[in-house]
Amino acid sequence: MAGLAAEVRIGILAWFGEETARKQWQPLGTTLQRLLPVEKVSLRYFDMVGLEAAVAAGELDFVVTNPGHYVVLEAHHGITRIATQTLEPGQDSEHAVGSAVIVPTERHDLQILEDLRGKRIAATVPDGFSGWQVVWAELKRRGLDPELRDLMPVFSGFPMSQIFDLMERGEADAGILRVCLLEHLIRQGRLPAGRYRVLSPQGASAPCLRSTPTYPGWAFAAASHTPDALARATLVALLSLDSRDSVLRWGVPADYHPVHAMLRELQVAPYEFLREHRLEVQIRRYWPVAAVFVALLAFWFAYTLRVEAIVQRRTRELSAAMAARDALEESVQAHRQQMDHLSRLSILGQLSGTLAHELNQPLATIGNYARSLTRRLQAGKLSDAAVAQAAEEIASQSERAAGILDGIRNFARKRVRRREDCDIALLVDEAVALFLGMMTRGPEVNIVQHLPPERRSVHVDRLQIQQILLNLLKNAFDAHRLAERVGQPIDIELDTEGDRIRVAVRDRGPGLAAEIQEHLFEPFFTTKPDGMGLGLSICKGIVEAHAGQLEATNCTDGPGLRFSFTLPSASP
Ligand code: ADP
Known about the structure:
The chain is α/β, with parallel strands linked by helices. It has 15 helices and 18 strands. The chain has four domains: about 5-90 and about 215-255, Periplasmic binding protein-like II (D-Maltodextrin-Binding Protein, domain 2); about 100-200, Periplasmic binding protein-like II (D-Maltodextrin-Binding Protein, domain 2); about 350-410; about 420-570, Heat Shock Protein 90. It starts with 6 loop residues before the first strand and ends with a strand. Bound molecules: adenosine-5'-diphosphate. Adenosine-5'-diphosphate binds near residues 479, 507, 527 and 534.
């Protein structure tokens, strides 16, 4: 035949190594050499990767390979099938390849493919067509995905007989054989019949049992550069063969679409790209949404962290501020008590002249009586009546002195504030008595009390209110002295004002000049040479602590100043 190449190069997929393949395929080489009008037909043997490389390099005119690998080479390198192998005599080339999943017959727990969930299944190699992929696809269709670890494949490598070794050693529960291999081995007497059983058996009418659908057989394909005439001549030669030897049994080229569909389902070559593609396409399609989502997430995360940090910082600051405020309040409290105490001591100090004079009086009287008793005794004129009168007088004078000292001691004592219900009229009485007690025999003091007829109780710190009254009375007395109106009345008035009691002390002194009024309640403001200027500021503090206000107003109905403040009534 004119125009045909001197040498026809046929690349063959050799699973089990060149040696075995050479033995298996040599009859095909010899037959073609006889039938084709070419000088030389050479068979070359490759593994999957080597075969593809040789096709890519244009080193082959024809390729003989399994259905899975054929569709890969067809997709990648444009080879075209011209014939499809039939494994068994009389077999339809469209349905030449399939797999049988076998288990030892005694494994009664394993009947159908679904029973393999969680089990180990022996297979040849991950890219073997009938050795793994066909079963993998069938398992997936039945809801078992090895990639999701629903069951575990154990790969034995070639030859396929190693599958039996794995099962015999108990390293696999089931094994995958290409269709008809089990029957073939039994026929050859290499395996006892009944030792193994096929799971989910199909094709009872076919020569062999299988667990999967069938696919077209191995392909005899022409490379893209192979001349048509050579391809045609080769096809004619192949179709003319009919032998018991499967390498010499070829039919018309089958439809490999089912193979494509299955490999696409598994997303393996030539459809591997679907795996990356899926993710890539999704990313490309949704990246703006994903970016916004990620940005929002990052923003939310950062925001949460920031808010958390701010809250923690503020909490720390707040606790510190509260602790500082408590400490400050405590120290203010301590200072206020100190000031109260100082102020009381100051009033006492300012009154001490008259106080000394006052205490002198009873002591002098006591001394006089005692001396007069001694003199009378010496003169022998001591009558019982005189002794009784002297003793009586000494007792009453010493009681008077003790009374004065008691009042002063109580007043000057350092103490913690304590509120109680007390009769306001009684409180005023006590303060007046203490003031008069200190002033007795001093310059004349005229205190007039204007008390309401009904009794009113207030809820106050007794000693603090006494302190206010003493201070106001002393200031009134000082004002009278300044205005040279000693002896003029100092009025104390009590009035009810809603649920509060108003207390006022009015004098007839010079009143207040406007410039003094401004500073009246400032601490240490005084116009007196011996004054401390603490009295009114402390009084104001005490009144405000009782939720009232201390006011000073010049009188309009005559000379003088009127101090007034309110106190809370006792709860009824
Ligand atoms: P001190 O009596 O030690 O001066 P106070 O705080 O009690 O301290 O009084 C402050 C000043 O207020 C007095 O120095 C005085 O100028 C003025 N003052 C207080 N009471 C009267 C009053 N009844 N009449 C006129 N001035 C007064």
